[in-house]
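Q: Got a minute? One more chain.
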Amino acid sequence: MLCALALSSVALAAPVSIESLLAEMIDMERLATPIDPDVTCDQFSSYDRASVSADQDGWFANGDAGQFLRQEQNEGRDEWVMADMEGPGAILRMWSANPDGGDTIRVYIDGNARPVLEANFLDLTTAAVEGFPAPFSGRRAMGANLYFPIPYARSCKVTVSRPNLYYTIAYRTYPEGTEVQPFSMGQVMAAQDLVAEVGAVLANPNQPLSPRFTQPLSPITVDLPAGGGIASLPEFLGPAAISRLEVKVVSPKWEHRGPATQERVGGSPDLIEALRGTVLTMRWDDEARPAVWTPLGDFFGTAPGMNPFYTLPTGMTEDGVFYSNWFMPFRSKAQVTLRNDSTAPLKLTITPYVTPLKWPRGGYLYFRAGWKTEWFPAEPAFVDWLMLDADGPGRYVGTMLGIMNTIPAWWGEGDEKVWVDDDTFPSFFGTGSEDYFGYAWCSPELFTHAFHAQPNVTGPGNFGYTSVNRFQVFEDIPFNDRIRFYIEKWASGPRQYYTTCYWYSVPGAGNRYAPVSYWDRLVMELPEPYEVEGAIEGEDLTWKASGGDVTVQEGSWENMSRTRQLWWQHPAVGDTLEVTVPVEEAGTYEVVMGLCTAIDYGIHQLYWDGEPLGEPVDFFHDGVVFTTRSFGTITIDRAGNHTLTVEALEPNPAAAPARMFGLDYVLLKPVN
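A: Always. Here it is, folded:
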């Protein structure tokens, strides 16, 4: 286990350095310490610059690539400036959806003409540069991430050599006069022992973090009858902190069904209902309102149901134990209560870890967590959804966002917008929902990391339930008076949003959360994904091809039947794809197909049993669009298997060079 005591001595040492910042990455107690009112955290990003004001057109503009502060020349080469900061400060996090679109990244500090860091941006964010290993660097669900400190004493500028880029850069600014040991690659290499030590914790974040306890308290069995059963843990006396909490669900039983897959749905209906219907509340000292009010399952960051994942603050182990490593201090007493409003009884085993404290003169911030939900009809298409509105002083430290999406189309895209204190424009204005959570391109791929995760996507594609997390342990957002955290609901589509927000604030600080009724907390039934009645689905058919690559593509585009298609990529001109289509009865039919069009699709001739189905079809389109096309009437003289042949021809000159073809479905409509 990591010796956090040794690291804490590094973290407390001056000046600010790579070593002190590395120690912060796994210091959960730091989040509860009072903020310095002059320390700020901000972000540069490639958000669409048409977004100027909430009361002007363009606020929801979405051209979020290729937006830079300026273009300049250095030593005869063109560079595009992503970020330009006055110090003292430190870069804490970088993200990109397409780091290859930036080519070379350069970091200049303290007015130096030569960069202190120069690397291929893709390599830097995928653990391919010496000194920046996984898990500090890595690509997860197509999003490229770098969590590594880059401190500077006076200034910092970050550039790339190509401008086709989505990006965010989070940074911290310290008060003037703060002593900072500036970044250098020599210091990075000198700190590699500490990098390995901290990296070991980040790679296995489900372990207890504090060495100040050696044994947890005895497990407590809690029985919560259905329909309002209440249980409270024994009152904890302070000064102390709940530094870890483990919750094992005894019943209803949950079984892990092997490796993480999109087919899992989080457990039985009774288990899913009980975890959402049971409310967890926590109170510190004599505060009138609960500091924590969330559904039990949602507090641990995955919903609905139970879905294993591992982050530093919270998660769920493969053997079904929820855990929390949030550091939750209290001066005199702590009260933890559960109330089961669901129709299913719930039995738990709860193991608290309590760390005795010497209460400091400046006190601690109290841990907070709040939950809310809202159902959105298809319109309005664009909404800034307020996830948290809270008073300070305090720190914002994390978000769990859940979505129930009723259509196959991508649910997100909406940017995060974080207003801190007296902001006239958000301190944080992002480039997309998945981008805030550290992945990209609407990917439904499950992933987990110490600071962010996508633990649940029921699918297919982005249909159904999704749960995503980002925990800002390293790049926490301090606020003095107030914080408002919004995320855009972008584009049409009926869907439910629900969120757990995590933050710290001074005793007595308020927030605008209200308890949510049991009926509004219920996990909704999902409709079936869009499916064309009577269609023969392309992804279910057998095939053979003379060239190119054939696979099943899963997606979430409008009018796509069952969110999958048979996908032919990179055929040469003259190559053919033969698809076997079963026909139940002989007869005369109108042949209708669901087909994909996009910028990299080709011109193809289609044949039925060797006979042309009309003229060649150009499938080029500036954007992905699924269309329905009739190929006229044919007579099929026998039941059984028939052959649909696709021949690749010379593509449209405007198309990207892939000559793709996508078969969503074949629909044979009887003609009387």
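A: Residues 192-203 form the longest helix (12 residues).
Q: Perfect, thanks.
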